[in-house]
Amino acid sequence: MIATLIVVFREVIEAALVVGIVLAASRGVPRRGLWVSAGVLGGIAGAALVAAFASAIAAAMEGIGQELFNAGILFAAVAMLGWHNIWMSRHGRELSAEANRIGTDVLEGARPLYALAVVCGVAVLREGSEVVLFLYGIAVAGGNTSTSMVGGGALGLIAGIALGTALYRGLLVIPLRALFAVTSGLILLLAAGMASQGAAFLMQADVLPALGNNVWDTSFLLTERSVLGQVLHVLTGYTAKPAGIQLVFYLVTITVIGTLMYLFRHDARPSRASRLPARDPAT
Questions:
Q1: Which of 60, 154, 179, 180 shows a CA-CA span of 20 to 30 A to 209?
Q2: In a 10 Å sphere around its CB, with 0-12 CB exposed, 13-18 middle and 19+ buried, how is residue 217 labelled?
Q3: What is the count of structural domains for the chain?
Q4: How much is the pTM?
């Protein structure tokens, strides 16, 4: 439930951020609400279509190389989670600036009204499609019932919309950078846990060696069947009796994604020279 809440909350916030910026920048444009609403509904419909196709593919693969299919879903989710964090580390500010620029252009008459629908629809479709893939990965990894996932998704949706509204109204006290830093860290752990679980599926299918069974046993301290154990299993990939290959995939995932996030974040920062005001040649 908590993992579902975090993923949905993060994605809704990012979509709401784009929609809020567009609304704020286009304030005063007649019928802007109608066009933005049409874009949001179109994005939701597109994400629902992605979910329908994902369900059809999963049903078609039922019982046919199930371990390989589950591992494939998990690794696809890991790739998307990692790319999401890395991309946002570098382009988050650019995304906000572009949304603001489109809203301003529409207000000034430089772009047609439907541009509002397009940018909002694309944002909602992108984040909604990522939610679909992530939730499939969480479901395949286990530790969540359909009821808990629906509950977590609903709470994440409500919290994301509420925070997005606060952003639009200018009432947000928590710095957005700190909020994204926390959720990025949680998503990084979630991705590592999924990679570890994917390795376990490949090990069960005899595709990968175990590299040692039960490297340690912490079941006497915390079992995966306990409430806390289930939460840690979903959020961080906790396993009481991990195989060596699971630890390798876990550590490699954290190292690779974390390093790329750090490099892209620092590469995206403007240089000190670019932040200094230009000097008057006459002085």
A1: 60
A2: exposed
A3: 1
A4: 0.63
Q: Please, are residues 134 and 54 in contact by the beta-carbon 8 Å criterion?
A: no
User: Tell me: the pLDDT tens digits for 60-85?
Assistant: 666 556 677 778 877 877 887 787 77
Q: Is residue 283 assigned to a domain?
A: no
Q: Give the burial string for 178-187 (b: 16+ CB within 10 Å, else e).
A: eebeebbebb
Please name which of 199, 193, 182 lies closest in space to residue 85, comparing C-alpha atoms: 182
Give residue 39's region: left, alpha or beta (phi > 0; psi -120 to 50). alpha
Among candidate residues 13, 29, 38, the one with its CA nearest the CA of residue 104 = 29
Q: What is the pLDDT of residue 247?
A: 93
- Boundaries of domain holding 51: 2-269
Amino acid identity, position 3: A
Residue 275 lies in a domain: no
Distance (Å, whole) CA 180 – CA 226: 30
